[in-house]
Specification:
This protein is mainly alpha-helical. The protein has a single domain, classed as Arc Repressor Mutant, subunit A (Orthogonal Bundle). It is 70% helix and 11% strand. The chain has 5 helices and 3 strands. The protein has helices spanning 6-16, 19-28, 35-39, 46-58, 78-128; strands spanning 33-34, 62-67, 70-75. A 3-stranded antiparallel beta sheet has the order 1-3-2. Residues 1-95 form the HTH arsR-type domain. It holds the Pfam family HTH_20. Residues 109-129 are annotated as: Disordered. One of its GO terms (molecular function) is DNA-binding transcription factor activity. This is Transcriptional regulator.
Length: 129
C-alpha cells in the first residue's frame, strides 16, 4: 500500500468534505456512470456536476473516460483506503478511550450495587429489632 503524501491526503479529505461528492462516490461504487447520471439526483447543472467530478479526479477518487460524446466516470478506491488507514489510528485512540470508560462505568455500577446491598442489609437488621 503506497502512502499518500500529506498534500494528497488533504485533497482526498477536501473532496470527501462535500455531501454531493460523497453521494457521487456512493453511486459510482455500484458501477460506471455518466456525468449526467451523477448529476441527476441533484438540482445542479452539468457544469456544476463536472466541477464536483474534477475535485474527485484531482483527489484520484474518480477516473473519467470520454467515449464519443459521453463522459463516463468510475470509482478509484485506492485513495479511500489510504484515508481509511489514516483514520484507523484515531479509531484505535477512541476504542482505547471507550474501553477505559466502559471499565470505569462497570466499576461504578459494581460499587453502587454493593452500596445498595449494604443499605438493604442495614434496613433488614433494623426491621428485625
Amino acid at each position: 500500500m503506497v502512502e499518500l503524501s500529506p498534500e494528497h491526503l488533504d485533497t482526498v479529505f477536501h473532496a470527501l468534505g462535500d455531501s454531493t461528492r460523497r453521494r457521487m462516490l456512493h453511486d459510482l461504487a455500484a458501477g460506471e456512470r455518466s456525468v449526467g447520471e451523477l448529476a441527476a439526483p441533484f438540482d445542479i447543472s452539468l457544469a456544476a456536476a463536472s466541477k464536483h467530478i474534477k475535485a474527485l479526479e484531482k483527489a484520484g477518487l474518480v477516473r473519467r473516460e470520454v467515449r464519443g460524446r459521453s463522459h463516463l466516470c468510475r470509482l478509484e478506491a485506492g485513495p479511500l483506503a489510504e484515508a481509511h488507514a489514516w483514520l484507523a489510528f484515531y479509531e484505535r485512540f477512541w476504542t482505547d478511550r471507550l474501553d477505559v470508560l466502559e471499565r470505569l462505568l462497570r466499576e461504578d455500577a459494581r460499587k453502587d450495587s454493593q452500596s445498595e446491598a449494604q443499605k438493604g442489609a442495614k434496613t433488614s437488621e433494623g426491621d428485625q429489632r
